[in-house]
Amino acid sequence: MKRLAPLLATAGLLAGSLPFLTAAPAAADPAVQEYGPARPAWHRCSAEQPASYECATLTVPLDYRQPRGRTLDLAISRVKSPDPAKRHGVLLMNPGGPGGPGLDLPLTAGAALPPEVRERYDLIGFDPRGVGASSPVGCGLTDAEQQFQRAYRPETFPSDVAWARTVADKCREKAGAVLPYITTRNTARDMDAIRSALGERRISYLGYSYGTYLGAVYTQMFPSRTDRFVLDSAVDPQRIWRGMIQVWASEAEPAFARWTRWTAERDAEYRLGATPEAVSATFWGLVARADRDPIEFQGQKITGDDIRRGRPMFFSPAQAAPAVSALKAAADGTPPPKGLAVPDVRTALRGAAEPASDNATAVFWSVVCGDTDAWPRDPEQYRRDAERDKARYPLYGDMASNIKPCAFWQRPAEAATPMRTRADALTVQNEWDSQTPLVSGLGMHSVLRGSRMVLARGGEGHTVYLSEPGSCVNAPVTSYLATGRLPARDVACTTVPAPAQRHDARPGGEPLPFPAGPQRF
Fold first, then answer.
1. Other residues' Cβ atoms within 10 Å of the Cβ of residue 420
2. Distances (CA, A) of 446 to 210, 336, 431
3. SS3 letters for 277-306?
4. Hey, which of 76, 260, 364, 453 would disulfide with 126, CB 3.0 to 4.6 Å?
């Protein structure tokens, strides 16, 4: 816990609650005040789904500054509270991304909600603008062009620059009139349009990963319309968005060091080294070997860069150790250690395969590039940063800091949202989260004044509530959603990590629809 103590102290988790800094309430966004969508025309979503699962389409402005101009369709869904007498209001949900569809969340996440929460809300899902059934956008990108985890090498950097420019150019050519308006601030305005269409004075919210930033932005734009907000596995608003990709690299290093210690204690099982130093040497020897001669493993040729792209798995030692042990055995041409349960790690090592459509990728870049003007525009800055971070954070630093399409993206239509207004939200965090690491969750908590944090010490994996049935965070989150009462102070509890491969699954074992793989928040 040496690593945890100073971070907890920073967020007030050792001393109690964070001091409140009072800010004057902000007025609601004037653009949305001018725009009131019609009430939804609800209908059964499909014959294959329960009759209680209803869908509708709202029409919202592409540009809220021109409410009578071009419009977008916004697909929404609903499952009503089973007990109208106990109903408190509506609970909107977002699974993360950016680019993750959320239309099915009232069914998938709703089935996992405890009864005391479920009965208090009509559950509202929606595909964010540009996503899925909500006027989807695309850039016509190939599968190769959708892969942005690119290792830095001097000889390949010109092709990396060409790739980044090509993605930006294709997106501008294919959807340049729409993509500047696919941003977090406009999605927050859409959320308020949903509120207005439903006839609600306020909304409650459950957002995961990127959805935490979306929720936080809503609290700042519409503070008087914010009710009970849970922000699970939070983005640091001060790091959007290049800094959030770079934090994958800096925080992979302590996770990797933890893995070497854990694995060394189990050398008889994994045969990777009896000391942390030996385990590390084995790993880096394997990376160098795979870069010289790719390893045939589970039907794929695995390079050293592919192994480093497996960064997220090192946040769970019980997942990483058998994978690396089996990979080493494959490189050596020997059987894996006797009794070793070898997971299917193709996705972890090569990255989650993108769908045939590039919709999620197009929305990802639209938001990541369009939310902030903090991206460098000079390719040489990316070269220098990638060289520096490859030395600082050898596991992933060069991939995190290498050039991205945002270097060539059109300038954002709006500035990023300042976090100045008090928001009585609940932030939730695992200690060992690969996508929104602990330092990121603490960053959200520190800038969102009035928030409380529930931290699962020892918790592994990305997303917690409803994803980890045994997590110690579940009780305080359930209590808050059911009663509206925040914990009196920040909570740091101890949890036992779920078994490998259990993350992002609800009690029935079916996956929740959170964006998977190492390329999403």
1. 12
2. 17, 46, 16
3. HHHHHHHHHHHHHHHHCCEEECCEEECHHH
4. 76
Closest CA to 326 of 311, 314, 340, 313: 340
Task: Verify whether residue 209 is a known catalytic residue.
Answer: yes
Task: Give residue-wise pLDDT tens across range 493-505.
Answer: 998 776 554 334 3
Per the CB < 8 A criterion, the answer to whether 259 and 320 are in contact is yes
60's CB contacts (< 8 A; 6+ apart) are 35, 37, 71, 72, 74, 129, 189, 190, 193
DSSP-derived letter for residue 22 is -
What's the per-residue H, E or C state across 133-173? CCCCCCCCCCHHHHCCCCCCCCCCHHHHHHHHHHHHHHHHH
Residue 331 to residue 348: CA distance in whole angstroms? 18
Amino acid symbol at 355:
P
Cβ count within 10 A of residue 391: 9
The question of whether 43 is a catalytic residue gets the answer: no
- In the set 77, 209, 325, 446, the catalytic residue is 209
Q: What is the pLDDT of residues 202-246, one digit of tens each?
A: 999 999 999 999 999 999 999 999 999 999 999 999 999 999 999
Catalytic residue among 462, 467, 490, 503: 462
Query: Among 234, 248, 201, 190, which Cα is nearest to 419's?
Result: 234
What does 340-390 look like in DSSP terms, one character per residue? ------HHHHH-PPPPSS-HHHHHHHHHHHHS-S-S---HHHHHHHHHHHH
**pLDDT averages per 10-residue partition of the chain, 521 residues:** 42 33 45 70 94 97 95 98 97 95 93 95 98 97 94 98 98 97 98 97 97 98 98 98 98 98 97 98 97 92 94 93 94 86 67 69 97 97 98 98 98 96 97 96 97 96 89 96 97 79 38 52 86
Q: Which of 433, 446, 451, 503 is catalytic?
A: 433
Question: What predicted TM-score, i.e. pTM, was given to this entire model?
Answer: 0.91
CA pseudo-torsion sign 411, 414, 420, 424: negative
Q: Give which of 236, 234, 216, 235 is closest to 226, Cα–Cα.
A: 216
Active site residue 451: no
Task: Count how many residues are written for the chain.
Answer: 521
First to last CA, the chain: 26
Non-local CB neighbours of 294 within 8 Å, separated by 6+ positions? 301, 302, 303, 306
Q: How far apart are CA 485 and CA 459, in angstroms?
A: 24
Give the count of beta carbons closer than 10 Å to the beta carbon of residue 447: 16
